[in-house]
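Re-run with default settings, no changes from the original entry. Doing this only to confirm the output is reproducible before filing.
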Amino acid sequence: MKKFIAIGLVFLFIVGFSTILFADEGTVSTTPYRLAIGNKVARGLKNALLGWTEIPKRMVDITNETNDPVWGVFAGTFQGTLKAIARTASGVSDVVTAPISPEKPPLISPDINVE
């Protein structure tokens, strides 16, 4: 019986150290947990509160691409509304899941530029 216990302990020792040896160093975060949560909440609030700004932004972008202001207003309103809904939902998702997975990147990229 003592042989089985000794073999089991050696097996657990080998398996335990092998998981450390093959750990992915890319998952180790250098930012503190509270700071990561704060960053994710700030990004989420920014996206949730300013998601509507995608509508005029898409209007201007489409007008500049097509040189047709009428088409820019109609197509930009449609595309901007869809993107605004997606950005707002992404922001709400970031705020809600901030304590659970603070290192996860946002669903919508790039972030809104508020300079």
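The longest helix spans residues 69-97. Residues 30-97 form one domain.
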